[in-house]
């Protein structure tokens, strides 16, 4: 089963689902602002609390450090919807699957 995460507009990622879990992402094909992921660097990731504790199958995210709580998930989502005039799906070009 494949349940993709949503990525910001400046992120492009390629996943090889034929490879074993833990080896599906090549850092050179995970681009942030057009540059490959730097394994020596730390990144801040935003997400729902449920996802970040690994409760929905993304165990790798559960090893986060230095958490920052901006607000409750549902309250932040409601504020986002109120701020936007129109809400639509994100681009279909952010994630590429290799099978």
Question: Can you give a write-up of this model?
Answer:
Helices cover 15% and strands 20% of the residues. The chain has helices at 49-52, 73-83, and strands spanning 11-16, 25-32, 35-36, 95-98. The chain has a 4-stranded mixed sheet, with no helix packed on it. A hairpin with a 2-residue loop joins strand 2 (25-32) and strand 3 (35-36). 0% of the residues are buried. The model has no long low-confidence stretch (mean pLDDT 85). This is 5'-Nucleotidase C-terminal domain-containing protein. InterPro entries: 5'-Nucleotdase_C, 5'-Nucleotdase_C_sf. Residues 7-62 form the 5'-Nucleotidase C-terminal domain.
List keywords for this structure.
99 residues; single chain; four-stranded mixed sheet; alpha+beta; 4 strands
List the helices and strands and how they pair.
Blueprint: E1 11-16, E2 25-32, E3 35-36, H1 49-52, H2 73-83, E4 95-98
Parallel strand pairs: 1-4
Antiparallel strand pairs: 1-2, 2-3
């Amino acid at each position: 089963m494949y349940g993709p995460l949503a990525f910001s507009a400046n992120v492009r990622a390629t996943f090889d689902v034929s490879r074993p879990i833990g080896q599906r992402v090549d850092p050179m094909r995970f681009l942030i602002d057009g540059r490959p992921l730097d394994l020596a660097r730390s990144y801040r990731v935003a997400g729902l609390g449920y996802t970040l504790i690994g409760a929905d199958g993304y165990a790798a995210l559960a090893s986060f450090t230095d958490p920052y709580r901006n607000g409750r998930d549902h309250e932040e989502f409601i504020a986002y919807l109120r701020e936007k005039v129109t809400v639509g799906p994100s681009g279909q070009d952010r994630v590429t699957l290799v099978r």
